Amino acid sequence: MSKMSYSVPIGPVHPSLKEPMTFNFEIYGERIEKVNLAPGDNHRGIEFMGRQRNPIQIIYLAERICGICSASHPFAFCQAVENAAGIEVPERAQYIRVIIAELERIHSHILWAGVAAHELGFDSILYLTWRAREEVLDLLEYLTGNRINYGIFMIGGVRRDITKEHIPRIKKTLEYYKDIYAKLEDVFLNDPTIALRTKNVGILTTEDALRLCAVGPTARASGITKDIRQDQPYAAYADLEVKAITPDALTGEVHGDIYDRIIVRLLEVVQSIQIIEQCIENIPSGEIIAEKKLVKLLNQLKKAKGEGIGRHEAPRGECIHYVKLNESELPEVWKARAPTYNNLMTWVPMLIGQQIADIPIVIASIDPCIACMDRVTILNKDNGQKSILAKEDLHKLSVQKTRRITP
Question: DSSP for 348-407?
């Protein structure tokens, strides 16, 4: 009997998002034998739009590259412009930037945990984590005026101060996460079904992570101590001695599977709490922006000539922005590289050898900045027949596997 193989294309995803993706799988039975990725189905042209605007206007475009990481891109962009124009950021502003960035990391990792639980069929955990996420979103709204797209970053500093009146509310939120952390850890690390669905699934070896230039929790879960906050400290991170977290900090071992990615993100929530506590304890006094008058700032940027790079350890990994100013109101070049670009190819070794039902959780495990899948078409190579799996059908397969292996 000849080998029966199937071609399973997935995507492209919704074209309004930054990185629509198409996956092409070769399937034998339930096992994935080959994976091809086809990025670039559509692009919003956000960098082109930025080159038609001045650097101050670009901040709000950068903030919308990713709705979840809406501090990461303006953080890196502002650093790039400041480097190009030779602008010195006040020390107090550097601390405020770190506080906002670490609150966003808490928000992003908890959001990811809920999405991962949903892909496994645990919607009750999705509701638990997203309810927990509300606390940090409320705090971000309290500090900046917005739950998402905070509008607090400005070239040369920040637009809003964190005063002593804000500190009790910040501490209250941090205590909330300390109180519920044990519950989150128990739910995600001690549940036998989650362990069955995530241990030894979607493995990315240390060698593959290095070879494919993985970043963020995806790299650290494979045992690579790579973290921009540690390797090349910026803003206030140089004062905080941040250390990259790997799963062996908790278990003593590194497997590079989905379970290890859960561990890293949970431990990073604790780390972010500690970083914020250090910041509010040691934040210096002084100005929060180098130039308060935007007209004067824009005039300074018009006269600037040079290149600058901004790097920030976003929740998903290293985010890089490059800017070239050439004595003009408009930047000559603006280039943004989100961490998903680095992590895309790690899907290939993660997915090969897994079952179709593992596709949703493996894809979700790198916390990609792309939309959900539109649909799946299965083509039987032997008889040419096609069948369609909608997004809901693929999710149903994942839930069914969870139920099937539950003791």
Answer: HHHHTT-BGGGHHHHHHTT--SSPPP-EEEEEETTT--EEEEEHHHHHHHHHHHHHHH--
**Paired strand residues for 400:** none
Phi, psi of 89 (to 5 degrees): -90, 130
CA-derived radius of gyration, the chain: 22
* Residue 64, helix vs strand vs coil: coil
d(CA 41, CA 22): 8
Give me the pLDDT at residue 50, please.
Answer: 87
Query: What type of residue sits at position 372?
Result: C
* Domain final position from 321, 341, 361: 341
Give the whole-angstrom CA distance, residue 394 versus residue 201.
17
Cα of 200 vs its chain's centroid, Å: 23
Residue 37 DSSP SS3:
strand
- The neighbour count for residue 392, using CB atoms within 10 Å, is 8
Same domain, 258 and 208: yes
CB atoms within 10 A of CB 152: 27
Q: Report d(CA 404, CA 259) in Å as an integer.
A: 19
Chain Cα centroid distance, residue 267: 15
Q: What is the pLDDT of residues 184-219, one digit of tens each?
A: 999 999 999 999 999 999 999 999 999 999 999 999
- DSSP assignment string, 158-188: ESS---TTTHHHHHHHHHHHHHHHHHHHHHH
Same domain, 255 and 315: yes
Q: Where are the beta strands (DSSP E) in 66-220?
A: 153-154, 157-158
Over residues 84-102, the pLDDT tens digits come to 999 999 999 999 999 999 9
pLDDT at 10 over 80: no
User: Is 346 part of any domain?
Assistant: no
| Residue numbers of the domain that contains 277 | 46-341
Confidence of residue 379 (pLDDT cuts 50, 70, 90): very low
37 and 52 both lie in a single domain: no
Q: What is the C-alpha to C-alpha distance for residues 336 and 345, in angstroms, rounded to an integer?
A: 19
Residue 347 inside a domain? The answer is no
CB 75 within 8 A of CB 68: no
pTM beyond cutoff 0.85? yes
Measure the CA–CA gap between 149 and 63, rounded to whole angstroms: 6
- Sign, Cα dihedral of 150, 312, 13, 373: negative
Query: In this model, does residue 378 exceed pLDDT 50?
Result: no
Residue with tokens 């590259």: 65
Q: Would you say residue 72 lies in a domain? A: yes
Looking at per-residue pLDDT, the higher value among 23 and 96 belongs to 96
